[in-house]
Specification:
Elements lengths: L1 E6 L7 H15 L3 E6 L11 H8 L7 H12 L2 E7 L7 H10 L7 E3 L2 E3 L8 E7 L4 H5 L5 H10 L8 E7 L7 H16 L2
Parallel strand pairs: 1-2, 1-3, 3-6, 6-7
Antiparallel strand pairs: 4-5
C-alpha cells in the first residue's frame, strides 16, 4: 500500500515525534511504500500569497515546487496518516497552511454550481489521524465540541474515497503526562499502523 504520512511538530524528540517514528517503523515493517511530508524539516511555507489566493478563488492551483510534490504523492496514495499535536483546539498553523495550500480547488475538490464536488482524492481508502490534546477529554468534547475533529474527519475526509475507512487516535490530557496512559496510547498507534 502507498501511504503518505503528514508530520507537523518542530521538535523531533517530543512525544508526537516518537509517535511519528513509531508510525514510520510499523508501516515500513508492514511492507508499505511510505512518503513523508515533514512540514518543519521540509521548510514548507504555509503562507498563501496574493497570486495564490486569486488562483484558489478561481478554482485553480498555482504552481509551487514543494506543494506540487506533495500533491503528486497524494494522487498516488492509497492511505493517508496525519501525525501532529492539537494546539489551541486545532491544527498547528503550519499544518493549516499545508491544508490551505496543498488541498486546493482543482486538486482536492472542485466547486460545481456553488457546491463542492466530492472525492477528488478517491484513491485514498484509509485515513488516520494521530494527535494529542493538552486538555482532558471532557473539556474537548463538551464545552469545545471538538470542532477540530470535525474539520479533519468530515471536512478533509469528504475529498477521499466514498467508502474510506477512518481512524481518529487522540491522546487527551497531555498536560498531566501520565506515563502509563502515554504508553497505552503508543500501543494503540502501533496496532493501528500494523492493521493499516
Amino acid at each position: 500500500m502507498r501511504v503518505v504520512v503528514v508530520y507537523c511538530h518542530p521538535h523531533e524528540d517530543s512525544y508526537i515525534g516518537s509517535l511519528f517514528h513509531l508510525t514510520l517503523d510499523r508501516l515500513s515493517l508492514g511492507g508499505h511504500e511510505v512518503k513523508v511530508h515533514d512540514l518543519y524539516r521540509d521548510e514548507f511555507n504555509p503562507v498563501m500569497s496574493d497570486a495564490e489566493w486569486f488562483a484558489y478563488r478561481n478554482g485553480e492551483t498555482k504552481p509551487d515546487q514543494l506543494a506540487d510534490a506533495y500533491r503528486s504523492d497524494l494522487i498516488d496514495a492509497d492511505a493517508l496518516v496525519f501525525v501532529y499535536p492539537t494546539w489551541w483546539y486545532g491544527m498547528p498553523a503550519l499544518l493549516k497552511g499545508y491544508v490551505d495550500r496543498v488541498w486546493s480547488p482543482g486538486f482536492a475538490f472542485s466547486i460545481v454550481n456553488g457546491r463542492p464536488e466530492r472525492a477528488k482524492l478517491s484513491s485514498i481508502t484509509k485515513f488516520v489521524v494521530v494527535t494529542t490534546y493538552g486538555a482532558p477529554w471532557w473539556w474537548i468534547k463538551i464545552p469545545m465540541r471538538d470542532a477540530h475533529k470535525n474539520v479533519m474527519m468530515r471536512g478533509l475526509r469528504q475529498n477521499l474515497a466514498r467508502r474510506c475507512v477512518t481512524s481518529w487516535l487522540a491522546a487527551y490530557g497531555m498536560d498531566r503526562h501520565r506515563p502509563t496512559y502515554l504508553g497505552r496510547f503508543r500501543e494503540r498507534v502501533r496496532k493501528a499502523m500494523v492493521g493499516l
